Every structure is written in C-alpha cells, then in structure tokens.
Amino acid sequence: MTVPQWALLGFAVWTLLVLFGTVGVYRWSRILTGRVRISEWQADQPQGSDWYQRAMRAHMNCVENLPVFAAIVLCATAAGADSRPLDLLAGAILVARICQTTVHLAFAPSDLAASVRFAFFFVQAICMLAMAASVAVSAAG
Q1: What is the pTM of this model?
Q2: More confident residue, 32 or 63
C-alpha cells in the first residue's frame, strides 16, 4: 500500500475510534447504568452534555471529510501517482485531522479553541487541494 492509502486507512480508523471512544462510551455508559433508555437517543435533537455534543460534532467532522480524502486517494491510486510530496501531504492530513478532533474534544468552545480547530482544518483543506492538483498533473503527464 502507498502512504496515501495508509493515511486513508488511518483516517477511517480514527473516525471509528472517535465514534466508539466518545459517543459510544457516553451513550452506553448511560444506557447500561439505567440513566436512560436506549430509545431515548434522538438523532435530530441536541442531547447530553456539552462535551458529548462536541464529540458528536467532532465525529461528524471526520465523516464529512473522509469521502473527500478517499476520492483524492482513489484518484491517486487509479492514476498511479506516487511521490514523496503526496506522501507528506497525506501524512499531514491525517495528523491535522487527529489534532483538530483532539482540540474539539479537549477544549470547551472559545475563540481560541475555534481558531485552533479551524487552523487544523485549513491545513487539511490546503493539503487536499495540493494532493488533488498533484494527482491531476501526474495523470495528465
């Protein structure tokens, strides 16, 4: 497997770990201790603590960005694009994703926390654009 493929796998695993390690633990701890019934969780209503709501949003951020990264890696694979810059960009995306999620989970909403989260998101967006451009150039050449 190429480094971008490994990074994509890491992104997918991270998304699952965030789901199970935050949302899952929060919900099941309340269900298994009898504090709530399993049927009380409603997808379209804000529920739970502020931290739980941030965990839900952090997980959704992962889910929203995973397909974009997957599409770029798929195109890179199909084009046979394999280079050190692609490897570095893919690694940066994964690291920035983990950092963004960690900041989202660890810090209550504030201007500083939102700015740091956005900075990590921006790194991912720029790296994805650079990867896409590199793949396009590789495929055209």
Answers
A1: 0.91
A2: 63
